[in-house]
Amino acid sequence: MHDIRTLEFSNGSLQLIDQRKLPLSRELYICSTYEEVEFAIRDMVVRGAPAIGATAAYGVYLAAAAYQEFPHEAFFSKLREACHVLIKARPTAVNLRWAVRRMLALAESSSALTPPQIAERLLAEAKAIQQEDVDTNRRMGSHGNTLIPPKANILTHCNTGTLATAGWGTALGVVRSAVEAGKEVFIYADETRPRLQGGRLTAWELVQEGIPAKLIADSTAAFLMQQGKIDLIVVGADRIASNGDTSNKIGTYMLSVLAKEHGVPFYVVAPVSTIDYEIECGGESPIEERSREELSHVGTCQIAPDGIEVYNPAFDITPHSYISAIVTEYGVARPPFTQSLATFQS
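Given the sequence above, the corresponding structure tokens read:
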């Protein structure tokens, strides 16, 4: 398998593959401050819920390192302020909030230590979150592989591979595990408008891995299902409510409706950290709206007329009734999700 390192911390800074530049060039974006981490998350230098969480964890450390010479009270005041800024960078992906809360909780439980000692602990915790994500994805891959037949045509949406995580991937990680197990899979990767994460990122990963695949327009998915050419759909998630309602990249809900109409299994793959047990249903999940330019332009090329208004939600909500199963690191949850997901709650 090709080695792709989405994020790596070394020499006091966080190095990210700049996903805005792929697939035309592979460049690193260096973050030396928490403000730079916040920008990297907000501007989608890094994206994908698990990757955002791991990146934000390092952002908390960078804030602690920056303020470690401050008096104790001022250190914590500045650290909490930095955590608030990081959490607001992208509102839908719950892993971001989860990771920042985990880091802040560790800092507050270590209040008897000096700020430099706390910063040292936070760096170790960020590294732990990064490694845990890789291990979690591997376990999800193993559980998800049980859902993949020996020969399968699989439809993917957005990017759910190594680039969306600290390593291996969520939904695309299941595909990688199936390939590793010797299964014969063929991937239809939809382009995923408007930022084309499928066309730019998933297609790039599939080429790097040598996994047989074709890129399709988003609007081709229904025709493929009508022709009986899709055996299952695997997608990731940015937030899963207690009842299984799933917030994911815009277009996911549309695919789930098509899948139900054509009898195609629809699987969500996400770590338990993506489950928001604080909300009962998807209607409580915030939906991020992004800039007009993402729709009016492709890159720097304008494709829409000046003066046209734009509605550009980054995510939609797939009701739990359209989901066949949710794959986590602890196993495969099936309906009723209110009960099955509750068994994973710590």
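The chain has eleven helices and 16 strands. Try to locate this feature in the token string yourself.
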